[in-house]
Specification:
Elements (H helix, E strand, L loop, with lengths): L1 H18 L3 H10 L13 H8 L3 H25 L4 H17 L12 H11 L1 H17 L3 H10 L1 H8 L5 H16 L1 H9 L9
Helix pairs in contact: 1-4, 1-5, 3-4, 4-5, 4-6, 5-6, 5-10, 6-7, 7-8, 7-9, 9-10
Length: 205
């Protein structure tokens, strides 16, 4: 029992602290001597970085997904060693990694929207769900071209799909649902703009 508690605390704190380091903010300072939070929509994430700086946004994409993969994979392994399901470790660690990205202690609790971190968790929880979510994302993005809508819809299909493909613990769909709600909440301004018809469309070039 002590090992389980220690594992949960260690995974939660590590994921929160490390995921709070935002590649968009770091790269905007290093490459352009600017702060991405002062540009475009002010959101320190892939979409805004792409809108402001162009193709270097893919570095943000790789680093955001990469940190999610490393943290969630480590969490899954540690949970397994504590006698808990790997999938539970991934979802648990992924949720706290999202919290760290959204509300980072490093930047006065003002961060991004954590979708790319969530992507890593989704694929590690179940690659089949990850592929379906990716297909939904691409379908919306390449037709309607609203990244915010695409990410929310892609994330929203994950909890129902867990019931279809199965899950290792009853807590997995609970945590997954909480993660989706967090992501949607972080897109509240985008939702307002979508309803008003003023949301900016994603540019591929």
């Amino acid at each position: 029992m002590i090992q389980v508690i220690f594992t949960c605390i260690a995974c939660a704190l590590t994921a929160y602290v490390i995921s709070g380091l935002n590649p968009a903010i770091v790269l905007s300072h290093l490459l352009y001597h600017e702060d991405i939070r002062d540009k475009g929509s002010g959101n320190p994430g892939f979409t805004n970085f792409n809108r402001v700086y162009g193709k270097t946004a893919w570095l943000v994409f790789i680093l955001d997904v990469g940190k999610g993969v490393v943290l969630c994979l480590a969490g899954g392994i540690l949970f397994t060693r504590a006698g808990l399901p790997f999938q539970l470790g991934v979802s648990f660690t992924g949720f706290f990694a999202m919290l760290g990205h959204c509300y980072p202690v490093w930047y006065r609790f003002k961060g991004g929207k954590a979708f790319l971190v969530a992507v890593a968790a989704i694929f590690l929880m179940d690659w089949r769900i990850g592929l379906i979510a990716a297909a939904v994302l691409c379908l919306i993005l390449f037709t309607i071209r609203y990244m915010s809508l695409a990410t929310m819809l892609a994330a929203s299909v994950c909890p129902p799909l867990l019931f279809f493909f199965g899950y290792a613990s009853v807590w997995v769909p609970v945590i997954c649902t909480a993660s989706v709600l967090l992501l949607i909440f972080r897109h509240k301004e985008n939702i307002k703009r979508l309803l008003k018809g003023t949301e900016t469309k994603f540019k591929f070039k």
